[in-house]
Amino acid sequence: GAVVSQHPSWVICKSGTSVKIECRSLDFQATTMFWYRQFPKQSLMLMATSNEGSKATYEQGVEKDKFLINHASLTLSTLTVTSAHPEDSSFYICSASGSAEGGNEQFFGPGTRLTVL
Amino acid sequence: GQNIDQPTEMTATEGAIVQINCTYQTSGFNGLFWYQQHAGEAPTFLSYNVLDGLEEKGRFSSFLSRSKGYSYLLLKELQMKDSASYLCAPQDSNYQLIWGAGTKLIIKP
Q1: Chain B within 8 Å of A54 (Cβ-Cβ)?
Q2: What is the tens place of the pLDDT at every residue in B55-101?
Q3: A16 in contact with B at a CB cutoff of 8 Å?
Q4: What is the mean pLDDT of residues A89-103?
């Protein structure tokens, strides 16, 4: 199946710093990438949807100036958490969907665990 | 509104069969996915149904009834490694996945 990678797999940072998370589709072109956040024992929460070359569409309640998303190519999207605070500590997961196998299936990356001290 | 209804938790015995039910309401429908998620990991794809009926894939099968807004995931010959959360995720008219909290499946020896 299609492979999506995320980097880093975990990160610990100080409050007020910014953190960048990369999401790459390794063997297919991802026309759409999705960013999710998941708190312990809760469901996945969609943060934003991004299409290559255009601005991301953010879900209600997600601050676009705090969570910067860039989808510069068909294989790479980045999420930058700016001025991170402890309440931003969560499991961030990206997924990618493209014209490759699976039709509209979303292929998930392994996730990035962010801890803000 | 859009919502997903699955049991919060189920327990089954190693080697047995378990059926996880899911009812859903979405704005439009473009298929339904089942994902498996182990604690601390991202979801992994199990199955996709867009037409009514049963899709079989090894030990896992998934059923869909669009008219009833109902799906189930059937797991056979349960193994300890099947202990995980199982997420039913229908896709709405915008092809967005709608997520519930999932069903935590506990397998006992």
Answers
A1: no
A2: 998 999 999 999 999 999 999 999 999 999 999 999 888 778 898 88
A3: no
A4: 77
Answer yes or no: are the C-beta atoms of B69 and B83 closer than 8 Å. no
CB A28 within 8 A of CB A101: yes
Query: Which residue in chain B is spatially nearest to A5 when comparing CA positions?
Result: B42
Q: Is the pLDDT of residue A52 over 90?
A: no
CA distance B41 to chain A (A): 6
CA distance A116 to A114: 6
Question: φ, ψ for residue A111 (rounded to 5)?
Answer: 95, 155
Tally Cβ neighbours within 10 Å of residue A9. 12
Quick one: average pLDDT of A88-92?
A: 95
